[in-house]
Amino acid sequence: MTDLCALDALALARLLRSREVSAREAVAASIERVEAVDGLVNALVTRSFETAIATAAAADEAMARGELPGLLHGLPVAHKDLAETAGVRTSYGSPLFAGHVPGFDALVVARMAAAGAISLGKTNTPEFGAGSHTVNPVFGATRNPYDLSRSAGGSSGGAAAALAARMICLADGGDLGGSLRNPASFCNVVGLRPAPGRVPTWPLSDVADTFAVHGPMGRTVADVALLLAVMSGPDPRVPLALDAPVPVLTEPAGVAGLLARDLRGLKVAWSADLGLPVEPAVRAVLAPARQVLVELGCEVADAAPDLSGADEAFRTWRAFRFATGFGPLLPEHRDQLGPNVTWNTERGLELTVTELSRATVLRAELAQRVAGFFDRFEVLACPVSQVVPFDVTLDWVHEIDGVPQHTYLDWMASCYLISATGLPAISVPAGFTPDGLPVGLQLVGRWRAEWPLLGVAHAFETATGYATVAPALP
Length: 474
Fold this sequence. Notes:
Elements: H1 9-17, H2 23-41, E1 44-47, H3 49-64, E2 76-80, H4 107-114, E3 118-123, E4 135-136, E5 140-141, E6 143-144, E7 147-151, H5 157-164, E8 170-175, H6 181-187, E9 190-193, E10 213-218, H7 221-231, H8 255-259, E11 267-270, H9 280-295, E12 299-302, H10 310-326, H11 330-333, H12 339-349, H13 353-376, E13 379-383, E14 399-400, E15 403-404, H14 413-421, E16 425-432, E17 438-444, H15 450-464
Parallel strand pairs: 2-3, 2-8, 11-12, 11-13
Antiparallel strand pairs: 1-3, 4-5, 6-7, 8-10, 9-10, 9-16, 13-17, 14-15, 16-17
């Protein structure tokens, strides 16, 4: 008998559409898998199994009536606990919202449901998504399925761990400073940070925010592409949503045609470290990836964009965002806010107009330099994370290859410097350390060029095969 949980989203979608497998069977298999392994991993922290079973039954009945199935028909998914879900607890990883049940769905949730996805519940996240280590006082820490003593990354760590552990086949996530890419790297799955506006965010917290984005996660690049097609497209409530039409897909199998790409002559810039400290174990795993790109026909040159000013711009606008979102909570709820959120919010409240003005100028200068760099190269290849998955009991990484890290943000620079550019970026599985810890390769594309970038990632994934390596869970 086929192990339905071992199938990626495209393979399962094929069986569901041919009615060789029912939505009821797919959901039942995923629920059984969650109950078998999530006690070890702690990824799916709020479960909506009864609703999922009822939704699966309705999906099967619709198929029996001859209704045209959506692109995600019958696929078991889960939503990050930062995305509002109508009638299902959304805690944001905070004790202040431990019992919060919204009356509406976030846009990404609504779009996935409209396409036929069946939600099993909510995936764990750090408090308000602050940091790339998934732990909070409401649900505790999410553990890495490849080594339960290690972090699953964050802030979409619950999503990445649930995918890696074969509990679900697709998940949504968010990325401000690496929250889609870092956990994907740590858990040997795929996470795409799209260009700002590609996947509209609603409800709105800041109309002009182009740092935080929503994006897709899956076990393969093709699965991520399928979910991107569902999540993206303009929405009349979101002023900065991109108007570019979504690729036309009549069925999931059509994704293959969108990803097919000849990489011969593709100009790729290779940077082993972006000028940052990187653990030797990460360097060792990623080194062969350069030759893989060469063998695929790419013209690879050692180069990196000038990212000076990106660090200050990112930290300033992140702090401003925290002040806007959490500043009102500090006076009365300081004792219920964690140290990361408190520190970053206080930094935001201390900002001056001069600092905000300087960050704006720095980001504009960065954009001009990046544009020039990507005139010469189509893709930048570099580390996703500067470290391998670390001890799950740590608060954050305090040292990288002998270099002290002074705040919970420092060790995430290889991701957040890219966030500051506004470029799309993807984490794709690139291998394992001798201890079996996953390491991802970050591929960065030109502005708004998600689909060409996905084609490059798909070619790399196909050539290496690392995405097929599952963790040794029961």
